[in-house]
Amino acid sequence: MRKLLFSLLAAVPLLAVASPQGDESLGSAAGQAVQLPVADHVVVLKSERRMLLMKGGEVLRSYRISLGLMPTGPKEHNGDYRTPEGRYRLGKRNAHSDYFLSVQVTYPNEDDVRRARRDHENPGGAIMVHGQPNVPRHSPDYYSSQDWTDGCIALSDSDMLEFWLLTQSGIPIEIMA
Asked: What CATH number corresponds to the domain at position 106?
């Protein structure tokens, strides 16, 4: 499965979806490429374990997610195993991380840094949206049913590939309780 996903990722510049013959609803003639939709905003609903890709106020995709080992409440400091809450942006993309793809979340923001300084703490960092570990220590069922990250937002590998294809660096990500 991973080999297939990586081969799809390698083909991204060439990726096009052919419309079915005669389907004018896609806005193209048979055999012509159709542009993949690109999200303009990401919403994470921690309590529901859902991530929504949004475009123009409409939901493009909805994914089941896993969070940090201590999922309740906002991230307060380095090592608290919590997923942040607040407004951030998607940052750098890494096709060679310890997980199947990763996209940085620009945590900490100014509010996070101010709160951490007030509490004499290090706010932490390295919060990502990523797929499953490249070297798993647990069964696939564990990763799909438990909160298991250090504070990141985890998707299945197939969902992560789709997330990678439908997002761009710099778009807002809002993480809510």
From this structure: 2.40.440.10
Containing domain of residue 47, as a range? 37-176
- Are 109 and 122 members of one domain? yes
Three-state secondary structure string covering the chain: CHHHHHHHHHCHHHCCEECCCCCHHHCCCCCCEECCCCCCEEEEEHHHCEEEEEECCEEEEEEECECECCCCCCCCCCCCCCCCCEEEEEEEEECCCCECCEEEECCCCHHHHHHHHHCCCCCCCCCEEECCECCCCCCHHHHHHCCCECCCEECCHHHHHHHHHHCCCCCEEEEEC
Q: Are 50 and 142 in contact (CB under 8 A)?
A: no
Q: What is the tens place of the pLDDT at every residue in 121-169? A: 999 999 999 999 999 999 999 999 999 999 999 999 999 999 999 999 9
Domain count, the chain: 2
